[in-house]
Amino acid sequence: MIQEQMKVVSQRGIARDIQELVLEGELALRVKNPGCFVHIRVSTDTDPLLRRPISICEADPATGRLVLIYRVVGKGTVKLAEVHPGDKLDVLGPLGNGFPTEQVVPEERVLLVGGGVGVPPLYGLSKRLRERGITPVHVLGFANAQDAFYLDKFAALGPVYVATVDGSLGVRGMVTDAIDARSLECDLLYACGPGPMLKALEDRYLDKGIKGYLSLEQRMGCGIGACYACVCRTTGGREGGYRKVCSDGPVFKMGEVIL
Predict the structure, then answer these.
(1) What's the whole-number mean pLDDT along residues 99-111?
(2) How far apart are CA 118 and CA 174, in angstroms?
């Protein structure tokens, strides 16, 4: 983990209220596993006081660039959306534990499932899997067609199936509806998104013996495990039955924490 003044290379809107931010700096060389995040100071004063956690979509050590995708939803992300190429941002990271990929073998059927702003970290994960000779299947869920992004980029790495709540793109309904529509099966599941989506996937796959890793979305304070603002309950009772999403996660083995 390092703290760095990273240079803003570019920023653009890629969907409704969704921004793609590209940063450059040494921190990009420190990212080992997809699924980690950074903590960004979005203001030079105390308003807002806390940093904002943003998941890493892609890290390219060859160029020293990080791609971050985030939704503009409040004061902090509004300020972040106002930065321009050439500006500097105070960034802390990489933080958290990402998706493990070392044990995946090409023979396994790998399914990547993302919902909303849980989609971005799956892109870096998909690229890592392709480097290992694995072609993952992607199921991506959005509220509607206006909220969808990166579909072409995912399609370049493997099959993509989309679900939207209103049916304006892909299958009407949730990601599980898209999985059912295509009768998709897997040996290994990676997922990132809202809690109800992760719970639905765990209910579907855990008792079937499917291996899985889930990345939790959680409000954070410090981002380094000191403030205990992002604790979740475990099924195994470690540390009094709680884990810290920022430092123990955000990726957990399916069945490890109570969703």
Answers:
(1) 93
(2) 14
Second-level CATH architecture of 2-95: Beta Barrel (2.40)
- pLDDT for 149 equals 98
Maximum pairwise Cα distance, the chain:
52
- Tell me how long the chain is: 259
What is the pLDDT, as a whole number, of residue 97?
A: 95
Segments of 107-183 assigned E as strands: 110-115, 137-142, 160-164, 171-172
Measured distance CA(159)–CA(144) in Å, rounded = 20
pLDDT of residue 205: 96
| 3-state secondary structure (DSSP) of residue 197 | helix
Cα–Cα distance for residue pair 1/5, rounded to 1 Å: 13
Q: What is the pTM of this model?
A: 0.95
The CB density around residue 48, as the number of other CB atoms within 10 Å, is: 16
Q: What is the mean pLDDT of the chain?
A: 94
Q: Within 10 A of 193 (CB to CB), how many other CB atoms are there?
A: 24
CATH number of 218-259: 2.10.240.10
Q: What's residue 240's pLDDT? A: 57
**Phi–psi pair at 145, nearest 5 degrees:** -65, -30
Q: For 184-213, what is the mean pLDDT?
A: 96
Q: What is the domain partition of the chain in residue ranges?
A: 2-95, 99-217, 218-259
Question: Do residues 254 and 190 lie in contact, with contact meaning Cβ atoms separated by under 8 Å?
Answer: no
